Amino acid sequence: MRPVLLSFGSLHIYSWGFLLALATLLGALGAVELARRSGWEHPDAVLDVALGAVLAGVVGSRLNYLLLYRAAEFWRRPWIFFQFSAGGLVFHGGLALGILAGGYLARRRGLGFWTTGDVLAPFLAAGYGLVRVGCFLNGCCYGRVTHVPWAVVIPALADGLPRHPSQLYAAALGLFLGVLLLLFYRRRPFSGAVFLAYMGGGALERIVEDFFRDTLMYSANFTLAQVVSAGVFLVAVALYIWRSRRAAREKSLGATQ
C-alpha cells in the first residue's frame, strides 16, 4: 500500500486523489478526441460536461456512502465529507448525480443527452478502473479474507489477515469494460446504446466485485450494492430495448417516406 504517492516537504500528493485527477484528465481529453473523430462541430463542448459529471459523481458517491453507512456521524460532523483517506464512495450515488449533472450541462451546451453519454461512457468505465487502483494504494475498499496465492495484507488493519485485492479486480474490470465500450462505439446501433451498455456493464461489474469485497451484507448472500446494481442492470436493459425499438421505428418510417 502507498497512500501517499509523493511528498515535497509538508506537501503530500495522495495516491487516490492523484489517480482520480489523472482519470478525469485522460477521460476528458479522450472524450473530446472521440467527439472530434465522430464529426462533432464543437467537440470541446463535451469537456464541460465531462468535468461537471465527474465532479458531481464524486460528490454523489461520497454522500451516498456517508448517508448509507455513517449517517449519524455525518450529521454530527459534516466535515468528514472531505476525509477521503479512509475511503468511502458508493458507485450508485455517483452514477445518479453524475447523470443528472451531465444531462443538465449537455442541455446547456446544446448537446444531445444520449449522444453525449455515448462519447463519455468508455472513459467513465476506464476512469473508474484507474480510481480503483488508487483505492488499492490507499488501502481502502479491501477484499474478504482469503488464502489465494495473490492475497495481500492491508497494513492499516490490525488483524494482519490475507485478503482478496478486490480493488485490483475492480480496476481490471473497469478498464476492460472501457475498452469494450470503445469498440462498441464504432458499431453502435442507435444513439444511447453505448451509454446504456455502460450502465448495465457497470452494474454487473459491481455485482462481481462485491463477491470478493469485505463489505456489509444486505442479506445472507448479497450486499446492498449488489441488490441495487441488479435493479440498475434491469433498468439499463429495459431502456436499451426501448431505445432499440424506437430507433427501428424511426428507421422504418424514414424508409417509407
Describe what you observe in this structure.
- There is one protein chain.
- Helix content is 66%, strand content 5%.
- The chain is mainly alpha-helical and 257 residues long.
- The chain has one domain (4-194).
- The strands form 2 sheets. Strands 1-2 form a two-stranded antiparallel ribbon. Strands 3-4 form a two-stranded antiparallel sheet.
- A hairpin with an 8-residue loop joins strand 3 and strand 4 (162-163).
- The longest helix has 33 residues, at 224-256.
- The relative contact order is 0.11.
Percentage beta strand: 5-15%
- Shape call: globular
Strand order of the largest sheet: 1-2
Radius of gyration: 19 Å
> How far apart are the first and last residues' alpha carbons, in Å?
63 Å
**Low-pLDDT ranges:** none
> How many β-strand stretches?
4
Features:
two-stranded antiparallel ribbon
Give a quick precis of the structure.
The protein is mostly helical.
Lay out the secondary structure.
Layout: E1 4-8, E2 11-14, H1 15-37, H2 45-69, H3 71-76, H4 91-108, H5 113-138, E3 152-153, E4 162-163, H6 166-185, H7 193-210, H8 224-256
Antiparallel strand pairs: 1-2, 3-4
